[in-house]
Design a protein that fits this description.
Blueprint lengths: L8 E5 L3 H4 L1 H12 L3 E5 L12 E3 L6 H14 L5 H7 L3 H8 L4 H8 L3 H13 L3 E5 L1 H4 L4 H15 L8 E4 L17
Parallel strand pairs: 1-2, 1-4, 2-3, 4-5
Helix pairs in contact: 3-6, 3-7, 3-9, 6-7
Length: 188
């Protein structure tokens, strides 16, 4: 696909933005109306799933498996922003070697999502001109919450979807310092 054919992609995982963050959800809907695509990963068929290009009804607690498989596909399909990875991260080659062990077929058995759907989601996010990830407590309130957030960060870093408008890892939270934003000088 040419750059003109690369849509923006919104990846919502473990978040019901239309109910919990309705103001932000109106902007999300506006982006969809302007041509963005959305991936929704949630065990529940929430309203956002009906707007999604790809809906991944994952088994509760299987987020990390899904995200490892998405990273596998992004690497396998050559969608890694190697310049960004080399300039802005450490351990990139080792990470890419690691995710080679986790194909969508492996994750399908854990997540209960068909491997083909995992591939579609990964290719959409990896190929996006701008990819933004939104998540809430559905990602963090697990024994593996840290692994979940780190896995989301890995997707953004391996594709260069951070540090540019319309990209990034966006935790939708109710308190302004819940994730240390105030501690790092980003008070509203």
């Amino acid at each position: 696909l040419s750059d003109m054919e690369k849509p923006d992609v919104i990846f919502c995982i473990g978040t019901n933005m239309t109910e919990c963050h309705p103001v932000a959800a109106t902007r999300l809907k506006r982006a969809l109306a302007n041509g963005a695509q959305m991936i929704v990963a949630d065990p529940r068929r929430i309203g956002l799933a009906d707007l999604a290009a790809v809906y991944l009804p994952i088994r509760v607690g299987s987020d990390t498996a899904l995200l490892l498989a998405m990273a596998h596909v992004i690497a396998r399909e050559g969608l890694v922003d190697r310049e960004f990875l080399a300039a802005r991260t450490r351990g990139g080659p080792e990470f890419l070697d690691h995710v080679a062990e986790f194909p969508p077929e492996w994750a399908a058995a854990i997540t209960e999502v068909p491997a083909a759907d995992i591939e579609r989601a990964a290719i959409a996010y990896g190929h996006a001109e701008r990819g933004a990830i939104f998540y809430t407590l559905g990602i963090t309130e697990h024994i593996c919450g840290v692994d979940n957030v780190q896995s989301l960060c890995n997707l953004a870093l391996m594709t260069g979807n951070i540090g540019r408008p319309g990209t990034g890892i966006n935790p939708m939270r109710g308190q302004n310092n819940i994730q240390g934003a105030g501690d790092s000088g980003a008070l509203p």
